[in-house]
Amino acid sequence: MYLKAxxxxxxxxxxxxxxxxxxxTFEYCYLKSVNRTYKYGSLKVKLLKLPIHKIKVNFALYQxxxxxxxxxxNVSVDACKFLLNQKSSPVTAFIFNLFAPxxxxxxxxxxxxxxxxxxxxxxxxxxxxxxxxxFPEGDYGFYSIWYADGIKRAxxxxxGTLSYRNTRRxxx
Length: 172
Prior knowledge:
About 15% of the residues lie in helices and about 55% in strands. With about 170 residues, the protein is mainly β. It has a single domain, classed as Ganglioside M2 Activator Protein, Chain: A, CATH 2.70.220. The longest helix has 11 residues.
């Protein structure tokens, strides 16, 4: 016999902040629990000064250990260059693919429309963080800072918990 452990990721909070309301506003930014098995996160950024040609993003992952401490990744990327060649940065590609299938950001610059990340299911994030690139158990903060034309425009901070449970004995 051997033991089989199951891991689950669950969002705990999302905080979206616009640094300059004349440039962009968050129409919505929330987590929703439809039932026990279907939960998701969504956001919509209304861009007020279009088109946007220069976008830079800083992604940082933090783990909660007596406060949030840097963990594994802190990456800054020219988003326009990255969208031209996603193989140029595997770390950025992993982070981008956490939400890309549920977003309208899947094209090159310029951006001349609102940004939408629609109904990213917990199950999808759980698969990415436990099967594709396993993470240790704990509480995490995923911080992103979005720059346009070299000016800090918005932050999106997502918090979640990764836990291992439902261990059971499997006969050989």
